[in-house]
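As described in the Methods, two query proteins were run sequentially through the folding procedure within a single session, without resetting any intermediate state between them. The first query and its resulting C-alpha cells are shown here.
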Amino acid sequence: MKSISDIWKKWKFTRKYLPNVKNAQQIRWGFECGINRERGQILELIGNWNEAELAFSTMISCAKKINNKSSLAQGKTMMGNIKHRKGEYEKALSLFKEAYQLYANINDSLGRARALSFIGVLSWRQGKYEKAQDYFQQYLTIGEKMKDKKTICTALGNLALVYHVRGEIEKAMAYQKRTLRLAKELDDGRKISITLGNMGITYHDLGNYKKALQCYTRRLSIAEKMGDIRSVAAATGDMGIIYCEQKNYDKAIECHQREMRIAKKLGDKKSTGISLANLGIVYYEQKKFKKALDCYKQSLSISEELDDKRGISIVTGNIGLVYGKQRLFKKALLYHERSLRCAEELKDTRNMSIALGNLANIQMKLGNYEKAEVFLSKAIALASKLNLRYFLCGFLLDKAELFVKQKHFKQAKELLTQARTVAKEIGRAEIVEQCETLSKSIKRK
C-alpha cells in the first residue's frame, strides 16, 4: 500500500512546493504554501491588497518551514509587489533584494533577472531614472545571455519607460517598436497589448492623438479577442483620455464609465479608483467642478482604504486644482501640501515636482510671490534633473508669468525663450502659443 507521502509527491502541485517532503506536517505546510501563493495572486489581481499581503505572508512562513528557497524567493517577490503597490517603497526594495539574493544562492538566473526588473520598476517609480536604467540594462543582459526572448522583450519595454519619462520620446518609441516586434515573434498577445498601450501614451505625449487612438483601438481589439477584461478596461480608459484631450467629452465619459463598470465587476478597487479619477478629469475640463470633486473624493477614499500612497498623492493634487479653480485657495493649499508630503514620503521626485508647481500656482494667486518663486525654483530644479521636459516647459512659463507680475521683464523673456525651446522639442503647441502671447504682452508693456 502506498503511503500518503508517496501519493502527494505524485501530484504536480504538491511536488512543486514539497521537493524534500519528510512527514505529514511538511505536507500540510507545502500545501498551504502553494494554496496561499495562488490565493494571493488572485487577491492582488482584484485589488484586495491587504488580504493578498496576508496570503503571501503565510506563503513565506510555510516556505521557510519546508526549506523551499525557490518558493521563499517567489513569496518575497510577491510580497514586495504588494508593498510597492501600497507605496511602501523601502519595504518593497528590501524584499526584492532578499529575493535577488535567494535566487542567486540557488543559481536561478531567470529569478535573479526578474528581481532586478522589480527593483528597476521601483527605482523608476521613485524618480531614480539612472538607477532604473542600470537595473533594466542588467535585466536585458541576463536575458540576452540566456537567449530568453520573453525576458529581452520585457527589459526593452521597461527601458522604454525610462526614456519616455526622461523626455527622450523618440528613443522610447524606438524601444517600444523593438518590444512590439519581439512580442509578435513570441505570439504573446498580452505583451503586444501592453506595448500598444505604452506606444499610445508616447504618441499622446508627442501630441499625435490620431496615432495614439489607433494604438489604443488595436489594444482594445486584441484584449477583446483574448477575453482579457482587465486590458479591455485599460484600453478603454486610455481612449477616454484622448477623447478628453480632443474635447469630445461625451465619448470620454462613456469610455471611463465602461472602464469603471469592468473594474467593479472584477472587484478591482485600484482600477475603480483610477476610473473615478479619470472621470473627475473630464468633469474638471468641462468646468463641472462639483462633479469633478465628487469623483476625486471617491477615488481618494479608495486610495486611503488601500493605503495607496501614490494614489493619494495624485488625487489630492487633483482636488487641490479644483479648489484652486473655485478660488478656495486655503483648501487648495492643504490638498497640494498633502500631495507633496506623500510624494516626499515615497521619494517620488516626479510627483514632488508636480506638487511644488501646483503650490507655486496657488501662492502666486494669493500674491505670495516670494513663496511662489521658491516653489517654482524647486520644481524647475527637479524637472531639469529628471529631464521631465513635459512639466519643465510649463514650470518655466509659470515662472516667466511670475516675473511679469513683479515687472522683471528681462528675466521673464529669458525664461520664455527656454520654455518655448523645450515645448517645441516635445511638441507642446499650447505652451508655445502661451509663450508667444506672454511675449507680446511684455513688448506692449
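Immediately afterward, the second query was submitted; its sequence and C-alpha cells are:
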Amino acid sequence: MNTGKAGRRIRKTDNGFTLIELVAVLAILAVLAGITIPFGLRYVEQARRQKQLLEGRQLSMAVSMLVLEDAEWGDGSGSTLPFESIYWKKLSDEDNPLNGFYPSDWDPEGMVTEILTDASGKLHEITYQASDGSRETWTFSEEEGRFQVEVTRREP
C-alpha cells in the first residue's frame, strides 16, 4: 500500500468514469437535445414556407409580366401561342402550395378572359373559360406568410 505525506493512504484509482457520471452526462445531453430539436424543426418548417411563398410570388410576377408585356406564351416546340390561349391543368405534387393550376396545353380551345391586379400591379385574379363553357377563377393572396391560390369553378 502506498502512503503519502503524514502517513495518509493513497488509493490507486482507475482512469474511468463512474456509472453516475455517465448517467448525468446522458441526462444533460437529453435535455439539450430536447431544447434544440424543436428549434431545428421550426427552422425547417419556416424555410419550407418561405420557399412556397417565393414560388407563389414568382408565379404571380411571371403572369403579371406576361400581361404587361402583352407577350406570347411559348409551348416549348419553338412556336408561340397568343396570350389568350394560356392553358391550365392541375399540379401533380400535393405538397406544392400552388397545388391547383398552372399553364399547360390541357384545353387549347379555352382562354383567359379576365386578369385583375391590385393597386400596386400585383396579380390578384385570373378568370379562365374552358371550351365547354365552364369558368374557373384563380384568386391569389398572401395570408399568414403563405402564398394562397383559391380556385372557384362555375359550370356552364
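The CA atoms of residues 46 and 145 lie 10 Å apart. We note this only descriptively and draw no conclusion about the first query from it.
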